[in-house]
């Protein structure tokens, strides 16, 4: 049986990052540079650090550098969301020590789980690292199994930087998938409606999407298309790990093509070498 992507987050035998191959696709000066990792990435601190060090050797310039959701997984020791954010920022700062990536803002996905049982407390964070005060947010729209997700505030997803930016943490993007509208009930329906209203009011120009795994564009394509319809977004991108137990479902070129729009540079790190 093929494991659900969430189960892979607790895989005891992920690939350890050794020799890696990096390729870039797109203009070297871009609005968004998004990291795509090909292979069963461990999400360990040392492996995440090694990837960033390799990326820092590449010659590009971007306004926003985007990593996958859970780019690094940190130990759970929190009693609430604010504590998790504080520690997430500390781990993100450690990741970036000695790393020079030519981007105005670097968005790091940081996860922490109290248990492999997703009914237990956990967070999935986005840490925006920049010379200015760092900004933090986290997932607000969990999968059905994520009963223990400690959710962020919806307002924290909307950033006024050089332009208006909306940050989406993995399943958050499905807020815009019209196919789930009829099945969303109660608080899930309320989150979808409130977030969509926020997008209409805020009028973001850039959308940044952290995903844990993206091995096919069709997981996200309906959501991206609907987000385009209701917003002023001109540049968007999904960052993720290109891996699926049992085999990926689409070519990576097609996956990249349909999960980014506008000025996007693809930084593809192959750890399966």
Automatic annotation (TrEMBL):
This is Uncharacterized protein. It comes from Archaeoglobus sulfaticallidus PM70-1. The lineage of its organism: Archaea, Methanobacteriati, Methanobacteriota, Archaeoglobi, Archaeoglobales.
